[in-house]
Amino acid sequence: MSSTTVAHLHAREILDSRGNPTVEVELTDSKGQVFLAAVPSGASTGDMEACELRDGDKSRYGGKGVLAAVANVTDKILPAIKGMTTEDIASIDHTMLELDGTKFKTNLGANAILGVSMAVCRAGAASCGEPLYQHINHLAGSPTMIMPVPCFNVINGGVHAGNFLAPQEFFLIPLGAPTFREALRMGAETYHVLKSLIAKKYGIESTAVGDEGGFAPNISTVEEAMDLLVEAIDIAGYTGHIYVGSDPAASEWYNKETDSYNFDFKRPLDQQDPSKVMKKEEVVKFWEEIKNKYPLKLLEDPFQDLDFEGHALMTAAIGEDIEIVGDDLYCTNVEFVRKGVDLQATNAMLLKVNQIGTITESLKAFKMCQDNQWGVFVSHRSGETTDDFIADLTVGLGTGHLKTGAPCRGERLAKYNELLRIEERTGLGYAGYEFRNSGHF
Ligand code: PGA
Ligand code: ZN
């Protein structure tokens, strides 16, 4: 049976989970089947991310409109890829890259390009007569598929929350679950215990949720966040089964002039504690002490996004016990990952498809990690839609873990619930304690 081809593209401006515009692409194939894809959007973005094209017209959505990106899909991308084979996403992505012709996709916008790339991936799966995760698995050279460990971001700080906590994310990591379904249950139960604990200690007004569904209680230190997590895990009955992790997203609170990190950056200047300003070596020591005191298993972006050297210090110090993940450091870009591998900067990469802008390039970055025995941590963005593409992506690549927020808010649950369905349909095993063996189960 011959492959379907791209017959038509339509795009529209929809809203993401923060109420900001984003791009949705609607692809019609040569059989008349329609495939949708919606693009996510970050807040703590890396300096080297592909361009998210925004209109800048202050009279619409405060300048955040995406009408130009939408028009690029129909006016520029469609004529270039019309009639191309949906199963050959590599050629379609390549054609879009050529058409754009810039390093960071500033011409067409990575939001336009990615929407098309995701929709093509879905159309290609249908053309092959296989589920999306299976299709992605084939495109990636058939790594062993496995159900991922869901890393639930349940305490929010940094630029995602209105408290004085500098690190952006604190995860519950249910390594000791037998299946994904049980991991989700354990995470949700602990999340509810955490809510009660926070209400008791900080008042009910502290149980409002942040962008990714986590709580943002009135706390300001890593130890307070860790203590809360550990207590909630204990009360829920999962000590020894649920571990913890953090994404400080340290770029957001790095001071270039003094080459230091201010763990108190969110407090008004005159109230900041000077002992909370740390040099690189002190930051390494800080997290090493946290690791010795708490059941820490994963640390993402502990340094700013150009500091390969700092990350390498951290990896050398605690990388054996802890997965050190580069997010803003790599921006899912194979060039930066190669540099990270050479410098042994981290031992894992965060995979966010909209940081780079095509599925093909995302797979290249994945492959670079797989070839070097690195972990790959699939991720949502803080601004999301109900598109569940990354559920299939994490299973298809066998990454062994993903983060897509707390077990709360529809746009986060869209991914976790799709993973429940995939597990039910495939009977795939759960990565659990092996979560770092991305692509090698
Ligand atoms: P972002 O946050 O989507 O706002 O970039 C997620 C992260 O930093 O991992
Ligand atoms: Zn991050």
Describe this structure in words.
The protein has 441 residues and is of the alpha/beta class. Helices cover 39% and strands 16% of the residues. The strands form three sheets. It has an eight-stranded mixed barrel, surrounded by six helices. Strands 1-2-3 form a three-stranded antiparallel β-sheet, with helices on one face. It is globular, with a radius of gyration of 21 Å. The model has no long low-confidence stretch (mean pLDDT 97). The structure holds 2-phosphoglycolic acid (PGA) and zinc ion (ZN). Belongs to the enolase family. It holds the Pfam family Enolase_C. The active site is at residues 212, 352.
CATH class of the largest domain: Alpha Beta
Q: Cα distance, first to last residue?
A: 32 Å
Write out the strand line-up for the largest beta sheet, numbering strands in chain order.
4-5-6-10-11-12-13-14
Strand tally:
14
SSE order: EEEHHHHEEHHEEEEHEHEHEHHEHEH
CATH superfamily of the largest domain: Enolase-like C-terminal domain
Q: Give the biggest sheet.
A: 8 strands, mixed, barrel
Mean pLDDT across the residues is: 97
Bound molecules: 2-phosphoglycolic acid, zinc ion
Q: How does the overall form come out from the CA principal axes? A: globular
Strand content: 15-25%
| Total helical elements | 13
Domain Enolase N-terminal: 6-136
GO molecular function, one term: phosphopyruvate hydratase activity
Active site: 212 (proton donor), 352 (proton acceptor)
Cofactor: Mg(2+)
